[in-house]
Amino acid sequence: MEYNRIKIVRSVLVIAITAFMANIPISNLRFLSDLATTIIDASAGIANSISEYKQYDVFPPHESPEEFDFVIVGASPSGSVIANRLSEISEWNVLLLEAGGVPSLLTEIPAAVAALDRSVYNWKTEAERQKGFCSGCLHNRRLNFGHGKGLGGGSIINYMICTRGNKMDYDNWEVMGNPGWSYQDLLPYFLKMEDANVAVNDSEYRAKGGPLGVSDVYFTTKLGDVFMEAAQQAGYPYVDYNGRQQMGVSRIQGTLRNGLRSDAENSYLRSVRHRKNLKIRTEAHVTKILMTDSKEAYGVEYSKDGRMYTVLAKKEVILSAGGLNSPQILMLSGIGPRSQLQEFDIPVIEDLAVGTIMYDHLTFLGAAFLINQPVGLQVLDYALDPQTYVDFMLHRRGPITSFALEVIAFLKTNLTEQNYPAWPDIELLLVPGHLSTDFGIFFKQIFNIDDEIYNSYWKPITGKPVFTVLPVLLQPLSKGNVRLRSKNPFDTGKYTENYFSDPENLDIKRMIAGIREIQRIASQPALKKFEPRLVTTPFPGCNRFTFDSDAYWECAIRAIPASIYHQQSTCRMGPRTNKEAVVDARLRVHGIRNLRVADISIFPRPTSGHTVCPAYAIGEKAADLIKEDWKAASTEDNLDDPY
């Protein structure tokens, strides 16, 4: 199996190198991206034939409705955790339904991450067009808005960055009317889930032995070391950002174990797939939640292999389909804004603010610096060096364990409430390369960059030593939404991001402040000998502004933004008195019995960081809430109603 894994990756790289050495124009290299995607899609098709991946979906659906205690919709990180934890109770029968398939060998290789984005493991959706935004995007100026599809959800295609978020994120959730969701309440779940291998750590905040591997990145460049030194010279302490203090700089901590991706499938599902009381069904697209006239969920309808099936839930339906699919399924089932449902002639069962708010974490791709030495990623050198493959096959180290991100820093601008100085609003991510480091094969497609901008800005620096720092807006004020496109459950939702629409324009000002901080770090003595200098080629449409002015950066940020696929808060948690709330503090849908939502859609406000590790914690806590409720009901001889 190890040989096959490396053979596939090396074949793709060799083809790419051969094409490059043969002087095939960069504009014609799109076929390499398509080839890599084809290989990954093909590997997905054979995953069930490999022993390590067997035993999924071995129980075909019945013609007559099956019955389980719990039906979980979506094998997202949260849904996978819940399936594992509920099936620990041997007398409970659990069904996990997932619209996608089984991850393949390639999803576990960190260096393959770029090729996964346009593969069968991504829903490959796009946001709606937004005026004055994404002028540098292809496909009718629309932003890619992908999310994971398959056992493990987004954890099988993401960039593996594990950030818990900030203590104030969760304390604020509790203040908003959600008892039990403070940082101290969630810390035990962060500890329960992780198997940490972090060199610099706050031991009282870290744990060993959990299902999910969390490790420092395995491969780093000299540039990563130098950038961290420069950040410390700029006043950023080196921290365990998942420990006592988030503000500072650090090596990235990834969901990694032994040089491979640690995801929800291989961490939470693979080891329990043989449990007699757990059935996992893939390629099962849930179309509707079934409810009685008395507003009680009792099952779901789903499509598999072109046929429709019904499955019944004696206790609960648990919706864990993610920030975009969970609200869509609720609305298709009659739970959502009355006006939205009536527009599509869907009977209104409960009028709730489903999908009316969506937050996302946005970044900017154009803060690139030329340097005078090749101390960052050297993709061709790695690919041509046999030692690259030996290191990975024998020792699980080297460039194949890299996912092109090395250093992370958290800061607070002066544009955000200063009463909480340790609550960051900007994250910085060091890329020891740039968008054309891969010669236009993958990243141009991932970020949907149009040819004019790519050819004018990135193509001239192809092959040159360049690093990029991505500023990420952590606490956006702008709110998007998720709506139905139609009542057809196989249509994608309609996703409107509304980035930079806050009345005071603070979101764009924070992003510009992030760029100014990147420039300050780049000016520190540690980096000075590499002579970092901003790429000064103006982005098309922005040359009417003075380069490096605030007006120029605002134009550039609006031209080439990128979502990092953290769509959240679409089924917000809050008390019934909150008109924007969809679920209560125990994740039960307001007004509906026996139905919960448990994934990042329930976030009342965004977390200060990436969402995958909070998603695991959501799953761990949700499982305990469900166990508490039904065990209490059992004790009271009231098995059917803990509500």
From TrEMBL:
Ranges for domain Glucose-methanol-choline oxidoreductase C-terminal: 476-619
UniProt keyword terms in alphabetical order: FAD, Flavoprotein, Membrane, Transmembrane, Transmembrane helix
Gene3D superfamilies in alphabetical order: FAD/NAD(P)-binding domain, Glucose Oxidase, domain 3
InterPro entries: FAD/NAD-bd_sf, GMC_OxRdtase, GMC_OxRdtase_N, GMC_OxRtase_C
Signal peptide range: none
Cofactor(s) needed: FAD
Binding locations of FAD: 286
Name used for this protein in its record: Glucose-methanol-choline oxidoreductase N-terminal domain-containing protein
Source species: Callosobruchus maculatus (Southern cowpea weevil)
